[in-house]
Amino acid sequence: MNPLIVVTGGTKGIGRAIVDKFTANGFDAIVCARSVDGVAGPNMLPFAADLSTREGVNQLVNYVKSLGRPVDVLVNNTGTFQPGQIHNEAEGTFEQLMNTNVASAYHLTRGLVGEMMARRQGHIFMMCSTASITAYTNGGSYCISKFALLGMSRVLREELKPHGVKVTAILPGATLTTSWEGTDLPEDRFMKPDDVADSTWAAYTLSKSAVVEEILIRPQLGDI
């Protein structure tokens, strides 16, 4: 049986690049997003759910468990961005971003990590951001959520050390995905989703006695 990876926000951008990288190397992939139209293939297991809600997370956890297969890799990649500042962003922005970017990863990890701990095997990737370590003036609640996600990654790493489960936080800079549609900047000013996927795969392939705790990746010319 092929090893199994669960990727949230896995239908496009960085998430889809990670799905493609791991399936090309013999994995089956549970690909979760609000819409999974167009996700098909012998190694693809699409599942539609809104992970900004607790109900959506529970639906995904129940689906994964219904397969009766161990999860080898979990990639908490689902997320959303809204520009703004704390004093003037729209009411509800904080709750929306915290639920989507942080609570989804928290509850999904809690739902799946017990089996990893029992097997003393597994790797959890948390898709953070350079916004996890850099305060941007138009970052508002997005920066808050990404700082929180990095904090959760570090706590989880400490908790899971004695249980044989690896935790890696990934902090990508500007990556050319649909969120940058309409930009006037040249493509070579951005990283490619494959850059993040390749780094994720490289971290996964280390021996059991080693873990990459954090991966910080920026465009060659720096942040945008």
Automatic annotation (TrEMBL):
Pfam families on file: adh_short
InterPro entries referenced in this protein's UniProt entry, alphabetically: NAD(P)-bd_dom_sf (IPR036291), Sc_DH/Rdtase_CS (IPR020904), SDR_fam (IPR002347)
Keywords: Oxidoreductase
GO molecular function (one): oxidoreductase activity
CDD domains named in the record: SDR_c
Keyword check for Transferase: no
This protein's record includes keyword Oxidoreductase: yes
Domain of life: Bacteria
Similarity annotation: Belongs to the short-chain dehydrogenases/reductases (SDR) family.
Name used for this protein in its record: Short-chain dehydrogenase
